[in-house]
Every structure is written in structure tokens, then in C-alpha cells.
Design goal:
Layout (H helix, E strand, L loop, with lengths): L3 H18 L5 E5 L1 H14 L2 H6 L3 H6 L6 H12 L3 E8 L4 E4 L5 E15 L7 E16 L7 E9 L5 E4 L5 H45 L3 E2 L4 E12 L2 E11 L5 E5 L16 E6 H11 L4 E5 H4 L1 H14 L1 H5 L6 E6 L4 E5 L2 E13 L9 E16 L2 E19 L10 H20 L3 E2 L2 H4 L5 E6 L2 E6 L3
Antiparallel strand pairs: 1-10, 1-12, 2-4, 3-4, 4-5, 5-6, 5-7, 8-9, 9-10, 10-11, 12-21, 13-14, 14-16, 15-16, 16-17, 17-18, 18-19, 20-21
GO cellular component, one term: extracellular exosome
Pfam families: LBP_BPI_CETP, LBP_BPI_CETP_C
Keywords: Signal
């Protein structure tokens, strides 16, 4: 077990950052307006929204309009007498717009519609065409639920006459132009209602599918070796133009048993305000450490120095000779070092950099047959920690060992200042412990959401108390 001086050190080093990190949910997925627009547009395409527009019953809507006026009925009958067919010949949904509402926890989605309608009349052999541009507006809101967490809902889907623009594409005879203008005037009140009745249910279905896809993406299990990391939804939120998923997490062992829960969160999301990235995933520092603890557990290493790093073995012998020449003479070809890590590397995430702190008990034996060491040392070591992306995997690598503190715990040769060994011990850690721990991390952690959201590359960055994933553009 680590001595109290090491515990005090780790508390001082990690404490301030962890206290700050605990103000956040364990993980936060921010989805910006670009992602929302792209995914909703794809969902509309999957639900054949264009085909729905091309099948709008323009003629029957004019014939069966509610609240008709006798004078207008006469106008409609006159116009319809000269129409063989009237239908949408082409349709397009240009770029969607997602923007914040004036109300909290609400987004406005604007879906522009660009259609061309064709009118066939015996008055002329040429097809009469006119352009129809309008816009559907819907609201995305956070709705509380008595069962389980809150959820996002799309509502108030409608199209207004104020956004409708109709224009004749080809100028023909006075009679045909007059007929076309009459038809367009009759469509002004009819088209918004048709869009609401025919297209809004499709938009609702597309949104529901998109939201479920987002939830599945946010809560997809992450394979570790051993075990896995499972995410769950704490609550959805809307901030600025972003959809935010506040996530809880649990670690599972190789038998799918829960070993650790992470579900604490408070209302304040200081530090997780959405930025301009298309999306970002923030992982809280204590969850990062739990993942590292799973991948790099505490262990004991035994090293025969002369066979593994002979130059360091000679250096250690020279150091011991300065302390006790008689003891140095007892070092044999099988001189042995035992290292017991008292903790997994504890990651400290500061703005722009990451460090790892680890407590180690190191014992030096004259040969591999001795059961009592020359001495035992408590070591407080720091490493540089680098997070990076390799393909679709999060990678972590430790380097540049520095020993911050050494404490002589037991000595069978004589009392001495352990600082004399600092340089040699640093090399032992650099050549043995770090490669061993980096080897456990070499497979990385799969992160599938980047490609699922339509991006090929990503980058990890370090923020105070969190690790952050965003798309990379190059």
C-alpha cells in the first residue's frame, strides 16, 4: 500500500482538477447545427420526402378546399374546366437551417422546399410550369418525462402563406397566363395545408429516427481489453444551436459485471458550453482514469537488470558502491529489481497538456535467489501522457519519466540519501515500466462515432478536467 506521503502528493496534484471535473456529467456529447442539418436531411431522404412532395394532390386540394365562397367557387369551376392535370414535376429540399429559439431549451428548424409544378391545358400544347418556394418550420424542444429521462421532441410543424412564393416560368398567351395566375392564387391557401398534412408527419418520423440514431451513437458500448465501457443517457439539453447529451457511464469487467458507476451530475455545465465544432465528445477526468485503470492495472514486475539493461545494472552497482562497497560486491549476475505499482497511472488533464502520476515500491536484491532486499524505496513518478488518434482509435502513450520524490523505506545496508539513485532509477523506469504499460495501451480504444457522423478524421485535445474529441480537417 502506498505510504501517506504519496497519498498526500496525489491528492494535492489531482484534487483541484477532480473537484472541478465533478461539476460535469461523466461525458457530454455536443452535436452542432451542421451535424443536425446533415443527419435530418439524410433522414428525410431515407423517408422519401421528395417523393411525398411530388405526390402532393394539388388539383384535389383546390377542388376540396374548406370554407369556400360562392364567388370563388365559380372561379374555381371556370379554372378547373381548362385543366387536364396539375402536378409537381420536380422537387428539392435545399439546405436546412437550425438556429436557436428565443425560448430556452428550444431549437428552430427551417426546411426550405423548392418545387416546380406543371399544368396541362387544352388551350395550349406546351406544358405550363410555375415555381413554388415555401418553407416548413418546426421546433425541437426538451420534454420532461415521468418515466425515465427527458427526451427531445419535434412539434409545431407548419408552413405559412407568408413564406410561399409562386412565379410563372414561361410566359404564354394572355388567356393561358391568366389561367395559370388563377391557379397559383388558389394554391396560396391550399399548399401550406397540404404540406402540413402530407409532409409534416414524414418530418416527424425522420426526426424520431435521427434522435434514436443519436441516442444509439451516444450510448454505444466501447470495447476495452478487458471489459467494456457502457454509456447511458442522464439528460438531453439544448444549448445555443446544439443538441447536448449528458451521459452517465459504467465500467464492466470481462464477465459483463459492473465494477464502477459514473452517474453524478449537477445542473451547471461550466466548461461544456458548445463550441463551433460540428460535434464534440468530452470525457471527464475521473472516467478517463477509470478507463486507464482498467487497461493498466496495478502489478508487480521482476527485472534481472544484467540481462535486460546491463549498462544500467553497472550504473546501479556504482551507485551502491558509493553507499556501501561491501554490499556492491554482493551484487551478482542475477541482480534483481522488483517494482510493485501501488496505483495505475493517474491522469491529470490540464489545459493543453496531460500528465500521469504513479506511486511505485521498488526493491533491489543482490541476486534472484535472495528473499530480503538491500533496500526498498517509495517512488513518486510523473510521466508525460499523450492522447492521439490512430485510425478510429483513441491512443495513449507515456513518455519522459521524471521522479519527483524518493523515500527510503527499508535499508539492510545502511541509511542513505536515495537522491543518489535518482538518475539510475529514472532509467530503470524508462526502460522497463513505461514499455510495459505502453504495451497494454497499444491496441487503443475504438471510437466509432466519428465516421458514423460523416467525418473521416478526428483529434483529441486536453482541457482542464476533460478529454475532448472533435473532427479534424486537413
Amino acid at each position: 500500500m502506498a505510504g501517506p506521503w504519496i497519498v498526500t502528493f496525489l491528492y494535492g496534484l489531482l484534487g483541484a482538477t477532480l473537484v472541478h471535473a465533478d461539476l460535469w456529467p461523466p461525458a457530454v456529447l455536443n452535436l452542432g447545427p451542421e451535424v443536425i442539418k446533415d443527419q435530418l436531411a439524410q433522414a428525410l431522404e431515407d423517408h422519401n420526402a421528395i417523393a411525398i412532395l411530388q405526390e402532393l394532390p394539388l388539383l384535389s386540394a383546390m377542388q376540396n378546399r374548406p370554407g369556400s365562397i360562392p364567388m370563388l367557387d365559380s372561379l374555381v369551376r371556370t379554372a378547373l374546366r381548362y385543366i387536364v392535370w396539375l402536378r409537381v414535376t420536380s422537387a428539392n429540399i435545399p439546405r436546412l437551417v437550425v438556429q436557436p429559439s428565443t425560448y430556452d431549451q428550444e431549437l428552430i428548424v427551417r426546411i426550405p422546399l423548392d418545387m416546380v409544378a406543371g399544368l396541362n391545358t387544352p388551350l395550349i400544347k406546351t406544358l405550363v410550369q410555375f415555381q413554388m418556394n415555401t418553407e416548413v418550420q418546426a421546433l425541437i424542444r426538451v420534454e420532461k418525462s415521468t418515466r425515465g429521462p427527458a427526451h427531445l421532441n419535434l412539434s409545431d410543424c407548419s408552413s405559412s402563406e407568408n413564406t410561399l412564393r409562386l412565379s410563372l416560368l414561361n410566359k404564354l398567351s394572355f388567356m393561358v397566363n391568366s389561367l395559370a395566375n388563377n391557379v397559383m392564387n388558389l394554391l396560396v391557401p391550399a399548399l401550406p395545408q397540404m404540406v402540413k398534412n402530407q409532409l409534416c408527419p414524414v418530418i416527424q418520423q425522420a426526426f424520431n429516427d435521427m434522435y434514436n440514431d443519436f441516442l444509439e451513437l451516444a450510448t454505444a458500448p466501447v470495447a476495452l481489453s478487458p471489459g467494456a465501457l457502457d454509456f447511458g443517457l442522464l439528460s438531453p439539453a439544448i444549448q445555443d444551436s446544439n443538441i447536448v447529451f449528458n451521459l452517465k457511464a459504467k465500467l464492466l469487467d470481462s464477465q459483463a459485471r459492473v465494477t464502477q458507476w459514473f452517474n453524478s451530475s449537477v445542473a451547471s455545465l461550466t466548461g461544456t458550453t458548445p463550441d463551433r465544432a460540428p460535434f464534440s465528445l468530452l470525457v471527464r477526468q475521473d472516467l478517463v482514469n477509470a478507463i486507464v485503470n482498467t487497461l493498466v492495472p496495478k502489478e508487480e514486475l521482476v527485472i534481472l537488470l544484467t540481462f535486460v539493461i546491463p549498462e544500467v545494472a553497472r550504473e546501479l552497482q556504482a551507485n551502491i558502491k558509493e553507499i556501501n562497497a561491501e554490499a556492491a560486491n554482493k551484487l551478482g549476475p542475477t541482480q534483481m529489481v522488483k517494482m510493485a505499482t501501488q496505483s495505475s497511472p493517474q491522469i491529470v488533464l490540464k489545459e493543453g497538456s496531460a500528465k500521469a502520476a504513479q506511486s511505485i515500491i521498488l526493491e533491489v536484491f543482490p541476486t534472484n535467489t535472495d528473499v530480503r532486499p538491500f533496500f526498498s524505496l517509495g517512488i513518486e513518478a510523473n510521466y508525460e501522457a499523450q492522447f492521439f488518434t490512430e485510425g478510429d482509435r483513441l491512443m495513449l502513450d507515456f513518455s519522459n519519466v521524471s521522479i519527483e520524490r524518493i523515500k527510503l523505506m527499508i535499508s539492510d545496508i545502511e541509511l542513505f540519501d536515495p537522491e543518489i539513485l535518482k538518475g539510475t532509477l529514472t532509467k530503470i523506469l524508462e526502460y522497463t515500466l513505461l514499455p510495459n504499460e505502453n504495451g497494454k495501451l497499444r491496441n487503443g480504444i475504438p471510437v466509432s462515432m466519428v465516421k458514423a457522423l460523416g467525418y473521416q478524421k478526428s483529434v483529441w485535445s486536453v482541457h482542464k478536467g476533460a478529454l475532448k474529441l472533435t473532427p479534424a480537417f486537413s
